[in-house]
Amino acid sequence: MSKHLKTKLIDTFDGTSDNEYEYDKFLDSLSDELTKIPIKNNCFLEIKNGGWRKLHGLTCVIKMTAHYILRKIWVNGFSLKLEKRGSQLIITRYSHDEPTGATIYIHPQSKYQTMRTAIFSK
User: What's the predicted TM-score (pTM) here?
Assistant: First the structure.
């Protein structure tokens, strides 16, 4: 029997407004949560249902900071939801091309080659 982990909402951000306070609050929430997960230094992002073509892919390995992560997932006119399931941080991005949401997972650098092989060998 598989064990289901509860998903906890951490923060949201409405990128369609110019509210700097809301952006800074989301950036702080993401920074705080990044210190609590078992990943050190570098990470990569996995995206599912990305864009209007619902793509699945990986970013290159990046520094694990809130600033770098947000730069990688930034699109114009979007909203974000930050959640935590167990020790896994999940960002859901909603935009014109992703009305049902693109799911973005933050993974440790050590899993990069295994996941890259699994995705691109299909």
Answer: 0.86
